[in-house]
């Protein structure tokens, strides 16, 4: 039979069931096409990708880009069923992507559904119900998974994440008998196994205890403690120098008093990352053997809370004025380094801008001072970003090799990642600009460009730039850069982590 109709097929598999493997979907779609004299000329595939949103689904994004641009040589788009198109939490989003195809003259056909997607009232109603059911399936599954994770937390089992300095992960079998220690990057292989935390080597435990004593009894700041540890040649659990942030994390994490805490941050259904209030946390006290006494831990929390208490406007300006008199200049970096001082962002929020706070204490910023202070901040921030990114990928089971000379990360022996920081400058007209200097000598597969905010004190967003598409030495970015560049922009590094994540191979049915 002569094939007169040309079609593309879209297949997607997340982590649900073998019945939804891309091979099974393609077989069913091929049977459908052969019976109707349809020739499949293109395949767009997303393997191991959630259908909750379009982020990370390169296959669907590429299909829609081709549709929008008119670069298509087919008339139909064949999909296994409505759920493979997506389990979008807003059914209108699913309809929107299909509408884009329809607007370009392309019909989307769901091969395994019992209705014909012909635009009739019945098809429209059934399709709407199917879309809602697809989203509801994910919501129900999320609720069940969350309840199961909470139950395991309450039983005292660890739910993911690195152990941390001074602690180790221990694998238990289904009867609770220890099976051995899990090294960094290792994961359990059996569904019935569980993970708990145990105190690590005695030298690491002694260092953790020393951090608490220095903070609580000697009144040392996190920065001072970090500097002393680095001078003594001590490294973190990731083999990196200590920073104020890594010391602060040890001083505030309840796992060091044996508490198992979960749900501090929610990212349910990949909609929005939410930092939950303490009353929403799931906690099991006494789940693990404590590394430091509870009394010392809670004393440290009291010191930290008092340090971050709410100041009046007069108190804030008084402290800022004293700092100006003592140092002769002010900058966001200098403010953030001073213990007991509200953060630079707090000044900006309270007084409308950091510049306004400067004016109220009689300081006129000098551009050179700010430039030097920003340089100093960037030198400290870059290793922290690299360390945090490496740790996140290791926690997902990735194998990471880092070049100590260049900080280039090799991920699973498959691709390389370079991280760069982009300083923000403000034009005379108030527009924001960023200049990127790419590591062309390293030829990384992916460059992660971290854009800083207008004050150059915090990360704003990220650009995941593939070397094959953007092999240039320098790049200038504005607040808006068009789809050819902003298509690479992300609010967090979750897409990069998904590329690095290792998933267990499914057993053949």
Automatic annotation (TrEMBL):
Annotated signal sequence range: none
Occurrences of domain Resolvase/invertase-type recombinase catalytic (ranges): 6-156
Ranges for domain Recombinase: 178-310
Cited InterPro entries: DNA_bind_recomb_sf, DNA_bind_recombinase_dom, Resolv_N, Resolvase-like_N_sf, SSR_resolvase
A family per Pfam: Recombinase
Record protein name field: Recombinase family protein
Phylogenetic classification of the source organism: Bacteria, Pseudomonadati, Pseudomonadota, Alphaproteobacteria, Acetobacterales
């Amino acid at each position: 039979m002569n094939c007169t109709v040309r079609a593309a097929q879209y297949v997607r598999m997340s982590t649900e069931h073998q019945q939804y493997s891309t091979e099974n979907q393609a077989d069913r779609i091929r049977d459908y096409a052969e019976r109707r004299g349809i020739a499949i000329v293109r395949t767009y595939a997303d393997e191991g990708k959630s259908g909750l949103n379009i982020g990370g689904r390169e296959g669907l994004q590429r299909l829609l880009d081709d549709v929008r641009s008119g670069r298509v040589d087919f008339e139909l788009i064949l999909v296994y069923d409505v759920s493979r198109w997506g389990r979008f939490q807003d059914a209108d989003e699913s309809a929107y992507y299909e509408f884009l195809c329809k607007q370009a003259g392309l019909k989307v056909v769901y091969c395994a559904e019992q209705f014909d997607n012909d635009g009739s009232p019945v098809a429209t109603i059934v399709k709407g119900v199917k879309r809602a059911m697809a989203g509801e399936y994910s919501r129900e599954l999320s609720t069940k998974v969350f309840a199961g994770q909470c139950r395991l937390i309450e039983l005292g089992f660890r739910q993911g994440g690195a152990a941390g300095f001074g602690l180790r992960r221990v694998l238990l079998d289904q009867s609770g008998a220890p099976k051995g220690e899990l090294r960094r990057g290792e994961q359990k292989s059996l569904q019935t196994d569980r993970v708990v935390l145990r105190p690590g080597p005695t030298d690491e435990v002694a260092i953790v205890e020393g951090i608490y004593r220095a903070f609580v009894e000697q009144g040392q700041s996190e920065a001072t403690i970090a500097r002393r540890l680095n001078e003594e040649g001590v490294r973190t659990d990731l083999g990196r120098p200590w920073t104020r942030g890594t010391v602060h994390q040890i001083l505030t994490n309840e796992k060091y008093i044996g508490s198992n805490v979960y749900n501090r941050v929610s990212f349910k259904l990949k909609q929005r990352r939410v930092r939950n209030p303490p009353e929403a946390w799931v906690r099991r006290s006494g789940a693990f053997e404590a590394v430091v006494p509870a009394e010392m831990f809670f004393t440290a929390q009291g010191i930290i809370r008092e340090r971050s208490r709410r100041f009046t406007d007069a108190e804030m300006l008084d402290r800022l004025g004293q700092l100006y008199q003592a140092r002769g200049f002010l900058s966001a970096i200098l403010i953030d380094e001073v213990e007991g001082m509200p953060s630079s962002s707090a000044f900006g929020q309270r007084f409308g801008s950091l510049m306004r706070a400067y004016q109220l204490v009689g300081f006129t910023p000098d551009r050179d001072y700010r430039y030097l202070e920003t340089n100093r901040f960037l030198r400290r921030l870059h290793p922290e970003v690299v360390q945090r990114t490496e740790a996140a990928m290791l926690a997902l089971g990735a194998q990471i090799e880092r070049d100590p000379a260049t900080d280039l990360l090799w991920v699973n022996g498959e691709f390389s990642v370079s991280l760069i920081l982009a300083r923000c400058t403000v034009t005379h007209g108030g527009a924001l600009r960023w200049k990127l200097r790419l590591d062309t000598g390293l030829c990384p597969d992916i460059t992660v460009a971290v854009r800083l905010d207008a004050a150059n004190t915090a990360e704003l967003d990220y650009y995941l730039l593939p070397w094959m598409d953007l092999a240039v030495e320098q790049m200038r970015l504005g607040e808006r850069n068009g789809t050819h560049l902003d298509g690479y922009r992300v609010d967090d590094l979750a897409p990069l982590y998904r590329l690095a994540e290792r998933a267990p191979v499914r057993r053949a049915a």
